[in-house]
Design goal:
4-stranded mixed β-sheet; alpha+beta
């Protein structure tokens, strides 16, 4: 079972904004077009069955959750949109900051360098019980260089931004006049009105009827046949929307939500839940890592045989201060805009 964590670099990385970083003008131009074409979907809220008793145990139990109206971004935040935020604010992301050795005396020098986690596809099949066989900490990996210093987002302006921490996502959301969704809001939106269905498009998935999400085909993690048209992230909105007009609520990249992670749901029905407390979440985390947050939706690295999590009820934990090249986010606003 995949876990987005690396104990050797279990960190809480902090820092303040730095000097203005000028993003490429082509990214900013794309931002305007994206904002006009995608926008937000207003959802009236209501009551739905949250969770699942049919899959992984952390998705249980199923209970009734009632939500007030909210609006959610139709797509994941793109590189172009994030670039506009950075240009306007001078924001420096978590992955761009070196660690202070005095704060982390036990870490080797290479892990003190600014960087992030990158998927490293093995050439041959490997055992699935050791994620270190396909994940690497890469100095210099960050949102502009998602696979390392030699990589670029040029030509990927309409792909979801990755290599951001949840703190980076929250900073963007505040700048954009929104916030991160709660897990309940995200799951309600992902279901698209299909209460209790296994997927965001219905109960079944037959690829012969057409690909519905950007996921992994082949033998994970060594062979991705990319039959769905993409290896790695896809441009946002590459597949059909769900019943609420939302894109990529399954696959492409995992998405941060505001809830702290614990391995399960409450047993009682709830109204507008905000998730467990940080104190409770710390009881289910390594002390060096600290409390983690929930990510939803699965990613292009999810395969039926390994990470069967491109479903609305699926959930995983993510460290607060460590990004990867398959986690992004979208934002919400209160009320129906």
């Amino acid at each position: 079972m995949f876990r987005i964590e690396t104990h050797a670099i279990s960190l809480v990385r902090r820092g303040l904004m730095a000097a203005l970083i000028v993003a490429a003008s082509v990214l900013i131009g794309a931002t305007v077009a994206l904002a006009e074409s995608h926008g937000f979907a207003g959802l009236e809220g209501g009551t739905f069955a949250m969770g699942s008793g049919k899959h992984y145990r952390e998705e249980a139990p199923v209970r009734q959750v009632t939500l007030q109206p909210f609006s959610i971004q139709k797509t994941e935040v793109t590189n172009a949109e994030f670039a506009a935020f950075v240009e306007d604010t001078g924001y420096v992301t978590t992955a761009e900051k070196d660690l202070d050795q005095s704060d982390y005396p036990g870490l080797p020098p290479d892990l003190l360098k600014a960087g992030s986690m990158v998927f490293a596809q093995p050439k041959d099949p490997v055992a699935l019980n050791d994620i270190n066989l396909w994940w690497r900490y890469v100095p210099g990996a960050q949102w502009r260089h998602p696979r390392g210093p030699e990589s670029s987002i040029e030509g990927l302006e309409d792909h979801p931004v990755v290599q951001v921490s949840i703190e980076d996502a929250k900073a963007y959301a505040a700048w954009a006049g929104g916030r991160l969704p709660t897990e309940a809001e995200w799951e309600y939106a992902a279901r698209g009105g299909l209460d209790g269905a296994q997927f965001s498009w219905g109960e079944d998935y037959d690829p012969s009827e057409g690909w519905k999400a950007n996921t992994w085909q082949g033998v994970f993690p060594s062979i991705d046949t990319a039959e769905d048209g993409h290896h790695g992230s896809a441009p946002v909105g590459s597949y059909a929307s769900n019943g609420y007009g939302l894109y990529d609520m399954a696959g492409n990249v995992w998405e941060y939500v505001s809830d702290w992670w614990i391995p399960g749901h409450p047993t009682k029905d709830q109204t507008n839940p905000g998730g467990p407390s940080k104190t409770l979440a710390e009881q289910f985390a390594n002390s060096a890592v600290g409390a983690r947050h929930v990510v939803k939706g699965g990613s292009w690295l999810c395969a039926p045989s390994y990470c069967f999590r491109y479903r609305p009820s699926a959930r995983q934990p993510a460290e607060r201060s460590l990004g990867s090249n398959h986690i992004g986010f979208r934002i919400v606003r209160d009320g129906v805009n």
